[in-house]
Design brief:
Shape: globular
Radius of gyration: 18 Å
Number of strands: 12
Structural class: alpha+beta
CATH superfamily of one domain: Nucleoside Triphosphate Pyrophosphohydrolase
Distance between the termini: 43 Å
CATH class of one domain: Alpha Beta
Order of helices and strands: HHEEEEHHHHEEEEHEEEHE
Largest sheet: 8 strands, mixed
C-alpha cells in the first residue's frame, strides 16, 4: 500500500480541466485476500445484461451526482473522516489547489457511492491511494478518472442488478506474462482496428477477458506501482470473441422496473 501511495499521487496535469459533465470516476479496489494463496487482489465487476457493455469486466463507478456527491465530498474532507486520514490525500493536498482538491473529493465521493450501490462496498472501509491517468472512451463521448483504493475489513460483497458477479484478480497472477493476449472482436461496432490488448483470467466459472478501458486502468496501475511491462503485442496469443447484440444499449431494466 505504501508503494502505491508513493507511486500514484495527484498530478495537476491529470486533474486540470476536469468536468463532472463529461467525466466519470471509477474505483480500482484492492484488498488483502486470505483465500487460497494469501496476497493482494483487485476486485472487478462483470456487467450484467441489464446495462450497456454487458459481459465486460469493469471497475465500480460512474457519473457524479451533483448535489449528493458534493455534500459527500465535503463530509469526506472533514477532520476525522476516512479521506482526511489518508496519507495519500494529505500528500495530494500539497500538490493541488483548493478548487481542484474539492473537485477531486467530489469524484472520489462519486465512485465510492457507486461502489456501494453496485457491490455493497462500504465507503468508510476504503482508503484513498491516489489517481491514475485519465482515459477517453472510444465508443462513448466521455472520459474516465480512475482512482485506486485499499479496502480494509471487508471480504463479502453484495452485487446489485447492474453486476453479474464480482471477480477477484490476484496481483501475482497479473504479473505473469503468459496470461496476456490479443483480443479480436469479430463484431466490434467501432471503425478501424478490432484487435485489443487483453488479460486472460480463468477461475472456477470459466474464462473472462479483461480488455478496453478497464484493462488499460489495471495495466497503468501495474506499470506505475510495480514497474510491470506486459509482453509486446506480437508475442501474445490471439483470442477471439463477440460482443452481445445489445452491447451499446443493454436491456436497461432493473428488477424494480420490470
Amino acid at each position: 500500500m505504501e508503494r502505491a501511495v508513493a507511486s500514484l499521487g495527484c498530478t495537476s496535469t491529470e486533474l486540470c480541466g476536469l468536468c463532472p459533465k463529461d467525466t466519470a470516476s471509477v474505483l480500482l479496489p484492492i484488498r488483502w485476500s486470505e483465500e487460497h494463496l494469501p496476497g493482494p487482489v483487485i476486485l472487478l465487476n462483470k456487467r450484467s445484461g441489464s446495462v450497456r457493455q454487458p459481459g465486460d469486466l469493469c471497475c465500480p463507478g460512474g457519473r457524479v451526482k451533483g448535489l449528493t456527491d458534493r455534500m459527500l465530498g465535503w463530509l469526506l474532507r472533514q477532520p476525522g473522516a476516512p479521506l482526511h486520514r489518508s496519507l495519500a490525500w494529505r500528500l495530494c493536498r500539497q500538490e493541488i489547489r483548493g478548487r481542484t482538491r474539492r473537485l477531486l473529493s467530489v469524484f472520489w465521493a462519486g465512485c465510492l457511492r457507486e461502489s456501494w450501490e453496485e457491490m455493497g462496498l462500504l465507503p468508510w472501509n476504503v482508503e484513498f491511494l491516489g489517481v491514475l491517468p485519465l482515459y477517453r472512451l472510444r465508443l462513448f463521448d466521455r472520459r474516465i478518472l480512475p482512482m485506486a483504493g485499499w479496502v480494509h475489513r471487508q471480504s463479502r460483497f453484495r452485487p446489485n442488478w447492474e453486476v453479474d458477479r464480482i471477480l477477484t484478480l490476484r496481483l501475482e497472477d497479473l504479473l505473469i506474462p503468459g496470461k496476456y493476449g490479443r483480443y479480436r472482436i469479430r463484431n466490434h461496432p467501432g471503425q478501424g482496428e478490432n484487435v485489443y490488448p487483453c488479460y486472460i483470467h480463468t477461475d472456477q466459472q470459466g474464462q473472462e477477458i479483461l480488455w478496453g478501458a478497464t484493462y488499460w486502468i489495471v495495466e497503468s496501475f501495474l506499470r506505475m506501482v510495480l514497474g510491470f511491462e506486459p509482453p509486446e503485442p506480437e508475442l501474445r496469443p490471439l483470442v477471439e470473441g463477440e460482443l452481445a447484440e445489445n452491447y451499446l444499449t443493454g436491456t436497461r431494466e432493473s428488477p424494480g422496473r420490470r
